[in-house]
Amino acid sequence: MDQAWRILDPTAPKAVQDRQLAINRRQFFSRGATGIGTAALAGLLGRESLLATPSSKQGGALGSSHLPAKAKRVIYLFQNGAPTHVDLFDYKPRLHKLHGTPVPEEYFGGKRFSTMTGNPRGKLMLEPVEPFQQHGHSGAWVSEFMPHTAKVVDDLCFIKSMHTEAVNHAPAISFLLSGSEMPGRPTMGAWLNYGLGSASDELPGFVVMTSISKGTSCGQIFYDFYWGSGFLPSRFQGSRFRGSRDPVLYLKNPDGMKPELRRGLLDDLAKLNQLKYEQAGDPEIQTRIAQYEMAYKMQTSVPELTDFSDEPEHVLKMYGPQVKEPGTFAYNCLMARRLAERGVNFIQCMHAGWDQHNSLTTELYNQCRDTDQPSAALVQDLKMRGMLDDTLVIWGGEFGRTPFIQGDIKNRKRWGRDHHPYAFTVWMAGGGTKPGMTYGASDDLGFNAMENKVHVHDFQATVMHLLGIDHEKLTYRFQGRHFRLTDVHGHVVKEICT
Q1: Which residue range forms the structural domain that includes residue 257?
Q2: Signed CA dihedral, 449, 450, 455, 458: sign only
């Protein structure tokens, strides 16, 4: 066997490499616990899958950013289920004129829709549920569904020409967050955590919080791969904070265990794990060591993080009546600001329930009530604290919703819209984006992105650019090729950047 091939991790300490070179035949077979097939597979794949550059909480694989960064951190307000762009932000007066008439065939010819719609021929156009008005100096169109967002439009940058490729929720969310419809790729937060590291010693660099409106019938499942690290070492994956007073399990010491005893136990455990790492060279062992250490530090940092007693009353009122209730979107938005203050680089707040196939006139009101005020408050709060300039806030879902109706147009209580990948809207604030700007446009029915189209990979490339990362250079070698967030696509939308 070629010795160079037998070194599983060229970045490992020399002692580890020496052990790997010195492995004898008996050890080789004994470590293939499930047989020679597994051992052979590990030999073939291990050399590439273990090539992660070691990274501390202070710095990532890049060492420094590729270019001057406008944003230091990201707060992604992800709206699972796909908000309806034509009812919230993308005003199309022609929908009123065509209300109740069949979809013009020239708009949908050759396009793929979900199985619930199938062929759109004969479907009826549906006007916006609530009126739109222009707001702010920028004159941005916002529906009456979003009165609080309407007040901060001059701080927002709307992209109204987003489009994607997936027509169902999980593949579309995976595609937007990881660049692939199939699970298994690192998500945006994991790439950032890997590339730039973390500014915090006491909290994870990538935190996820989830919420759902009470009583909704159109919830979404929060799959772990929405914040996974894929083939990157698992230390870079998102840490999910639960919606409770104890957001992280098992942080408290068992009854009778003093802090100094816990400290000693972890120190001894780290020594044992280090010995195993020197034998095997597996970076997941280093992940385990880092997780134990982070958990110890979080015993102090998390209780302080979740204690809102130091928040002024006027700030709490900004976020709305649910702000003190763990598990709500309002609570998570305030938590996001507090996490950002403490050095967490990527905060992903995911709110489910936007899948209004037959509940536009009922549950859409609930969704907007629960998310509109906290989203706007977060932008205002960051701005007041001087943090908006270097914090990128993103609001949006995985695709849009059809300009035509799903259901019976005569039964207003059951109006709905189906999945629509061909045009949707997101907004961004701070972090080097141009405030008070609307970029791109869909056609006169909100059906197709027409002007300055922004594909999902373009969006990803732009987010990375704002963080000082060249999306073509942040790569990771796995299974014989170099992977990146944007796959082999993506162009930075420089027009929206300051």
Answers
A1: 252-297
A2: negative
